[in-house]
Amino acid sequence: EGFVPAMLFGGKLGGSYRHKLEADFQVDFLTVQGRGGEKPKAIPALNVNAEPLKFMEYLLESPAQTVLFDGNGNAVVVTVPAPARYAVHKLIIHSLRAATYRTKAAKDLAQAQALIQLLEAVAADELKAALADARARGPSWRSKVNAGLKAIG
Fold first, then answer.
1. Does the predicted model carry a pTM greater than 0.85?
2. Can you tell me whether residue 49 is helix, strand or coil?
3. Is 15 exposed, middle or buried (0-12, 13-18, 19+ CB in 10 A)?
4. Chain segment 53-79, per-residue pLDDT in tens
């Protein structure tokens, strides 16, 4: 409640929704890209459209569970992408957005870099496995991963 569809670049509706009263508060509904291509997919149970995102299937493999806390001491268990896969996915998505969505591309790269630095220190094997898995999916995947790594130096 309180969210309205946000227009995408070019005046199209996608899977982004902004809060009516807080313009900077945005929620993006994402899904895997299937036969429908880049056309938003209706999710009737939520009364929203989800934006198909390339390479999303990689991100959704081997999820992890964690706990979110609010400011009042309440908590909820949520399922999230594995951190190493999230970092690698951000590397890949960076190259896809670089030309059209520079702000989002820069954010993707910053998130990937921060996660990779942390993972190198605390979960290097998971990061190594996530990178190897993505690279093994073919030349397109390999080039996008390598381009992302090169961009973060």
1. no
2. strand
3. buried
4. 888 899 999 999 999 998 899 999 999
